[in-house]
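re: ur question from yesterday

yeah so i grabbed the chain u mentioned. its 249 aa long if i counted rite. heres the sequnce exactly as i have it in my notes:
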Amino acid sequence: MGSMAGLLGCGAYVAGLFVVSLWVRHGGLGLWAGVGLTAVQLLGVGGLAALILPQHWRRGPRAEIWLGLGGLGLVAALNYGWQYPSPSILDISHVLTQEAATGTQQVVWGRLLEMPRESRSGKGQLWLQVKQTQRVSSSGQPQGSMLTTEGKLYVTVPLQAAQDLRPGQEVQLQGRLYAPSRAKNPNAFDFQQYLASRGVYAGLSGQSVTAETEGGWGLWALRQRIVQAQAQGLGPERGALVSAMALGR
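ran it thru and got these structure tokens back, copy pasting raw so excuse formatting
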């Protein structure tokens, strides 16, 4: 009976995580709405099992065990809610007011975290550790005071503007903040969920970028030397192909 109770306990915990994930990630419910609905469902199932199963399964678990399994599913759902990625109080995603959503420009200062890459849309793709931001008026002039912010930001800029940028550089960007889009279909790519998995809760469609410091040395410099050497030896197209296979990008 002890081994059976252990297996049922593991199954109840996994079931709690699975059900709340379905509601939140695929059902479109808010985080705590999904947690609450899952808790009601699992406690209800545990209660029904405690009333019905002991009468028909004489050698099976007792009623209190079934109630405990429902409670264990509740613990799993609550743990899911507590562990779910969420922005901090100072995260730049909180700057996404109604004005920002309607096209208000922002100047953002921060540090580049990775080498720029080309996005599927042909733009430069940056990952930025944010430090400060300031609103820009319709005339193009800074408006209001600088806000100290934190968190990471997904940035796209014109490809040419990103070519000379390096990890570790302090940069100034100007563009429009936006909220990442969610999947429109049940099994479609969820851009908001993808960014949240990397701790990013907002995006910036950048128009200009200015490097304020030089990037430090790192593995990116070694990667660049390898890419350049292969491009010189094999030509731009073949060198880029070999570099992609060897370096993973």
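noticed a couple things. The CA atoms of residues 35 and 78 lie 6 Å apart. also The beta strands are 105-112, 117-118, 124-136, 142-148, 152-157, 170-178, 200-211.
anyway ttyl
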